[in-house]
Amino acid sequence: MINSLMNYGANRLMSFGIVAVGLGGFYAYDQYDKKTHYVPVQARVSNVQELCYMEKRSGRTTTTSDTLACDVAQYAVKSHPKWQGFTVKSKISVEYDYVSPVDNRTHSGKRMLSAWPDGKKLSRGEIFTIRASKSIADKSREI
Asked: Which of 114, 60, 61, 56 is nearest to 84 (CA)?
């Protein structure tokens, strides 16, 4: 019995190690791709839209609401009995324009965020840094 318990623990530890190595490999490739195939460029915000939804987790079950204005979601969580215990989550859509290093022309991009970059709200006309592809003119990534 002790032997089977030791085998069970060893198998779980081995499984955890495989998952950790896999996640580490994915992260390493992502960082390599970002630094090798993309270059930092300045982008100008053309449109920002922030919506929120309410979420509650209970064990393995997650309950969410439809998207709505953030102030309405905050109010509902604080004062409506149906939504008490829920957390307000953001869905932020940021559209931007940037000059591609591939063709020196202006291109547009869009990102969906769950939080503001560096905790700072973006507004129309503001300049921020993105990564533009070194080989594909209209491809960019991460804010």
From this structure: 56
